Structures are given as C-alpha cells and as structure tokens.
Amino acid sequence: MKESGGEDLMKTKMIVGAIITLFLVGVLTMAFSPLTTAHTEADPFVTDLIAGQTVDAGDVSVWNDGVHLYVKYETAGDWCLSTTNLDVATTLGEIPHTKKGLPIPGQFDYPMPHDPCTTEYTYEIDLNGWGPGTKLYIAAHAVVCEPGGGFVQGVITTVPLWIWTEAFNRGTVTVAIEGENLVVTYETISGWLMLDTHLYLDPTTPPTYPPPYDSFPFKHEGLGGGAGVTTDTYSISLPSLGVGCGDTLYISTHAYLRYNGTGIYRHAWGQLEEPLDMSKWIKYFSVTIPCEYVCKTAWGKGLRFTRTSWAMYFTYTVQGD
User: Fold this and answer.
1) Where are the beta strands (DSSP E) in the chain?
2) Would you say the pTM of this structure is higher than 0.70?
3) Which fold has domain 153-286?
4) Average pLDDT over residues 84-94
5) Which residues contact 262 (CB under 8 A, 6 or more apart)?
6) 212-238: per-residue pLDDT in tens?
7) Per-residue confidence (pLDDT) for residue 12, from 0 to 100
8) 191: three-class secondary structure by DSSP
9) Which fold has domain 37-150+294-317?
C-alpha cells in the first residue's frame, strides 16, 4: 500500500510538472510572438527596444501589408538611433552568427548608419513569397545614444568678418567650446586693426536689424590702448547664458576697424554668407551647441540567442487579410 501511494504521488507530481511546463511555454510564446490577428501600421506588433540590457529606450514595431514587411525603430526620451542593423529569416540559423551562436550585426542584411542621430527609422522589405502564416525570426539591433557627456570641445565654426558697406572680407570670427565656456575670437587680416568689438549672444532670439552693437551685452572698447589689435577673444560661460547641449545660439559679432597708418575706418560684421548687396546683410549667424553622447547597444526584446549573451531575437507571423 505504501509503495502504491508513492507511485500515485509521483504520477501526480509529474502531471503537475507537465502542466506547469506547458503553461510556461504558452506564456513565453505569447510574450515573444505576435498574436494571430492581422497587424497594420495603425495596430502593429510591438516589442521594447532594450538598451544596455535593462533600459527601455523605445519600441520596435512590425506589420505587413501582403506585399512588404515593415520594421520600425522608434526611440523614447532623449535616446536617438545612431545605427540600425536588421535581419529577417525563416529560421534562426539563417541570421548571421558566430560558431558559438552569437549574432553578427555587422553582417545583417539591412544595415543603416544614421548621421545625424534620428529618433525613428522604418525598414520596408519585400515579403519574397512569405505568405500568411510564415513564421519569421527577426533580429533588430541598434546603437542608441543620449546626451550625457557634456559639451563637445573645440571649434564649432569660423565665419568671415565683412566690412560695411563694401562687403570685403577683412578677417574671421571663430566660435569654440573650452570646458563649459563659449570662446569667440575675432582676428583681422594683415593691415587691419580692431579698435572696438561688440558681441551679442542669445539662445532664443536673433538681434533686431540693424543690430544695436553699442548696446550689446559684451563689449571690448579702446583695444590696445586705442591703438588697436589684430585679435580679441571673449570667454563666456554657457550655463550662465542658459544654454545646454543641442541648443541653438544666435551670435552677432561687430568690430570697428582701422586700416593701419591711414584714416580709413570701417564697421565689420561676422556672417556666414557673403553679403553681395545691401539686402543680404543680416549681421548675425547661429550655431548649434554640440553635445557628447553616451551610446549603448540595443536589441528588440525577445529571446536570447545564447545563454552567454543578452543579444535577442523575436518572431513574427506574417498576417493575411
């Protein structure tokens, strides 16, 4: 009787174990495979875009229209796509991989660099005879980036310094970042001296026309003790201006020049395009403050290729009408 009871208990445990296993398989299948209802652009199959193993950086959406398969990457928050690599196959083994089973994104069928970094990108792929009910294995890899490393150091731009009203180039204005400071350097060509310089900086509004240089917030006057200089530099804290990474900054640079040894005096302005006539003078330019980015590898959430790597794939069943 004891032995029979033990056998019954063992059978019961086996049955319970089998039920739990089937339940877990069903849950995993539902979690990582789309349902059998049709998917459209308005109602696609969606899985998370996971960055650095744990961060939800956006979504990967999949749908088809009977002719094409669409795979859309879309980031969330401050994340953007620096690179996307996509591979779609009817078996897991067809996705490029190493001998140990690790995927090789650089060999995927659909690579795409994104410069500048973008917040979304959609692949349109011919179904190639993959009819309704075809199970596809999709490896959606990306490199995603977000601001976080501070300002990019170095020169942002250099613009000509034009004299009014002849529109001759008589020097340059260079804009750079050093630490958290914006550094603006005026420099004249040989024979021309700067007596005064005036600088306007604003992250929201360009100056009125003509720019009122005498009321600009930053000014150096009587340079060289009134004799003039060939270079002049401003160094201004970007945080004090309320300027952060990625912001636009409007800049107006004025200089009062004298041709050395003569009585020739001219006003000069920095601007990108040559002012060919009076109507072309705008007397300011703008820059975007460049940011350093922190980048991470990302995958469309699904099942791992191997136990030793977190790289993932998911499946999608081609839908019909």
Assistant:
1) 45-51, 55-64, 68-75, 80-89, 110-118, 120-126, 135-151, 154-164, 168-178, 181-188, 192-202, 218-221, 231-237, 248-259, 265-270, 285-288, 291-300, 303-306, 309-317
2) no
3) Immunoglobulin-like (2.60.40)
4) 98
5) none
6) 999 999 999 999 999 999 999 999 999
7) 55
8) coil
9) Immunoglobulin-like (2.60.40)
